[in-house]
Amino acid sequence: MDKGSGSPRRHSVIAFSLLFAYLLSFVFEGQVLYSLTDYFQVSSTTFIIAAIVAHFVGLFCCGFFVRTSQNAKRTMLLAMVASLLCSFPFFFRAPLLWTGALMGCGLTSGFAVGAWGFFLKSCTPKNERIKTCADVLIYSNILMIFINLTAIHVSPFIGLVLSLLTLLIAAYFTALLPADEDQQTTANRSIGETISLREPMLLLGLFVVILTINSGLMYQVFNPAFNHLTGLTSWYWAVPYIVALIVMRNMPDSVKRAHFLYIGMTMIMASFIAFMFLDRSATSYLVVDTLMLGACGIFDLFWWSIIAEMLEYSDQPAKIFGIGLSANVLGVLLGGLIGVVLYSLDLPSANVTVIALVVVGVTLIILPALNRRLVLLLKNHTYLVAYSTMQNKQQQDIIGAVQSISPLTEREQEVLHLILAGKTNKGIAAELNISENTVKTHAKNIYSKYDVSSRSELISIHLKTMPSSES
Questions:
Q1: What pTM value is reported for the model?
Q2: Which 3-state string (H, E, C) describes 258-313?
Q3: What is the mean pLDDT of residues 381-385?
Q4: CB 3.0–4.6 Å: which of 100, 322, 368, 416 could bond 59 by disulfide?
């Protein structure tokens, strides 16, 4: 059975969509939580910050403990049960207990989300992962809207029951997921030991944080201005986000995703400008929210799909997926804190908006260059994985296909081969039984002979001669 269309992928999508719906509607600044704190007349600020911080910790740390698919499945199930238990105090007025309970929900759900990285990799072929990411974001947000409407217009307790029900059903579908270790993961283990994803991950984390600072800032700047439109905001809030995801999901593979990044940047700038000059009517809200949330949909699927691609080259999907999403949570948290500081200064609304627009503008100016660097790193990493699986003669043919300014010595050829195999300076030194300083000297000479200034450039000019670079 094709993994792209069979039960494993369906079960994976359903399980994560339901888990994420619980997270969005309750734990992560969800309307169920807001409705409950309003009902009990309790300030929500402390609970929300505590939940976000705990969720960040859960996402970031998950991959350091979850290293096999069996462990990932077990972690998801245990985390869902723990989140369920930690949610029950919210049926009662117990503010002192709520902070710890919500931190428990945030932490355990973070582990569950990170562990799903194993099943995003094993249950979906690489070329279908962008669609899987789009599917879980679309379905979870549709469920979130339904739960939010129930919590706001019917009862916060019924909303809480519905969010817990999604968690229970998510656990059922998680139990159906295959627990056998993925063959591709095992095959790539030796490659992963020599080729590091550290630099791409650091760059991706910076990219995501910068991108999503605007989301956190948005909550603090936009939401208070349209609080009086509860009926409209309760259902329309995520609609543009869902529509943008649907459009992105169904775009032909030939369309470059980077183009959508620029479209999203234009939309988010336009949303802040519209917010500055329009009134606070329902029509203005529709304009501002459509631009802002449409941009967020583009951005989210853009970097989710990058994380999904990176899973192919690691035997630790929970670490890649968890840390990648933790960068998103960190960006939201930082943006929210910036917004809180701006409002604490008691500045006029127009001044707050201008400052927010400046922050957004600066982050968006940085993004294109950061994206180009990230794409180059990932492309080189793809080449490195392919190079590592080649026979020695094929590797030598690639090295010989690129002419240097002057011939390389025998030792420089050995160093070059190991650089192209993804070895670090320390790894090269150990393999050739020489010092790291000697490796650096050889590397510098190699750079000079190929007229390049960095390891990345050296890798690019050699590995672009590979047949796979044509695809």
A1: 0.80
A2: HHHHHHHHHHHHHHHHHHHHCCCCHHHHHHHHHHHHHHHHHHHHHHHHHHHHHHHH
A3: 66
A4: 322
